[in-house]
Amino acid sequence: MNREKWLITGGAGYIGTHIADLFIADGKDVVLLDSLYQGLSSRIDYLCKKHNTDIPLEVVDIRDYTAIENILENNNFSGIVHTAALKAVGESVEKPDEYKEVNFTATTELLNLAQKHGVKKFLFSSTAAVYGSPDTMDPCKENGPLAPISPYGSTKLDAESKVTEFINTPGNSGTSLRFFNVVGTAAHELLDNSIENLVPIVLGKLSNNEAPVIFGTDYPTEDGTCVRDYVDVRDIAAAHLVAANATKPIPAIINVGTGRGASVREIVKLVLEAINKSDAQVIEAPRRAGDPAFLCANVDLAATELGFKSKYSLEESIRSLF
């Protein structure tokens, strides 16, 4: 039986390397594609040692369509996991054209090339940012209201529609997985280096001997701070593996979260406890524009249609970082 071979774009990224880790462990061959703009080759070095194998890395920008076509021509890929993207919400407001180019146009081109070269499976890393700023305290359903409030969210939503067109083409399969707030790590070498996510932001502040900041303490939540669904990166990777191995059609869009919310105040407390700094000062600041009070996943579809449930608790995710 031939081993499946998968192309993972953004393959040197925080999420991409966790997916590669599980795919290799599952007996799949992988080729990683990354511009190394945010990805780290050291993560791939770690995976090579862990699995005692060479892992091909193509250092290519996702907008270099000629290079990508050459890679598809020279490999017989079973599928593509597309995690490559620009993902800073604030930056997307400053650079909407670049975000459209990378997140939407490049995804469209990649899908066209996949179709041309007979790649049948496509898994797209999407985001809860497509839900925007819900005015309800109900968990978000895949078929619920979509109202992205940033170019980042809009470009990912537009890209989802192209992915859905691809997987609805006879013979093709796949899904767009909408991640909520990703946290945790499988190994210290694969840590998140983003400056956009709450836990790395808190740790960054503390390492600089600065006080973490909580933006908004007057939300209509239990402790007045924003509530989010924090899902472990190992669960995100596991959801991709389950989707890659699906033998029957799966929904075109699936939330990946825990279905449980945690407040910003809780997260800061857990991080401070983990590093024995429970008495550290925390600054409370006014709300930031566009931050919804509550953004959590309804995970029923993942459970019923994908047979997937997250297994890591928030405490385990935060402990994994130390």
UniProtKB/TrEMBL annotation:
One of its GO terms (molecular function) is UDP-glucose 4-epimerase activity. Gene3D superfamilies: NAD(P)-binding Rossmann-like Domain, UDP-galactose 4-epimerase, domain 1. Its cofactor is NAD(+). One of its GO terms (biological process) is galactose catabolic process via UDP-galactose, Leloir pathway. Signal peptide: none annotated. Residues 7-320 form the NAD(P)-binding domain. It comes from the Bacteria. Keywords: Carbohydrate metabolism, Isomerase, NAD. InterPro entries: NAD(P)-bd_dom, NAD(P)-bd_dom_sf, UDP_G4E. It catalyses: UDP-alpha-D-glucose = UDP-alpha-D-galactose. Its EC number is 5.1.3.2. NCBIfam families: galE. Belongs to the NAD(P)-dependent epimerase/dehydratase family. This is UDP-glucose 4-epimerase. It comes from Candidatus Planktophila lacus.
